[in-house]
Design brief:
Alpha-Beta Plaits; Arc Repressor Mutant, subunit A; 2 domains
Length: 141
């Protein structure tokens, strides 16, 4: 991987739909070289996938939050995290170090849905000990 590859990845992170012609112009490389580099980065696993960033307000999911979860060690953290990931509205789940064991990112339509997610669903997963919910005030994309 060279500096052009790193710059190419940064450009694709900002706009996954950017055209090869525009990438070539920004990198100062021939289109065929850029096309080959993109394919190589995909094949070698440097680029895992492309995705869209939706406008969650327009989708009716204006509230996002991070849930910090401690596990009571009755079950392996990986199993608890996998169960949490299966819950509706859970976007991302991570096993982390520090005071908490798991971090989950969620998006919901309102506080009532957040309450149901945490109280009725999350806290009923075997192995979940304590939870802390931090509501996102402003998202910077």
């Amino acid at each position: 991987m060279d500096e052009d590859d790193r710059e190419l990845i940064e450009l694709l992170k900002k706009d996954g739909k950017i055209k090869i012609k525009k990438l070539a112009r920004k990198l100062g490389l021939p289109m065929s070289t850029v096309h080959h580099k993109v394919k190589m980065l995909e094949e070698r696993g440097y680029i895992k996938k492309y995705s869209a960033i939706p406008d969650y307000r327009k989708l009716g999911l204006p509230i996002s939050a991070f849930l910090m979860i401690t596990v009571d060690q009755v079950r392996p953290q990986e199993n608890v995290a996998a169960d949490i990931k299966k819950l509706p509205r859970v976007e991302e789940t991570y096993i982390i170090t520090g005071t908490y064991d798991i971090l989950a990112k969620v998006r919901v339509k309102d506080i009532d849905e957040m309450n149901d997610l945490v109280v009725k669903n999350l806290r009923n997963i075997k192995g979940v000990d304590k939870t802390i919910t931090s509501i996102v005030l402003k998202e910077i994309i």
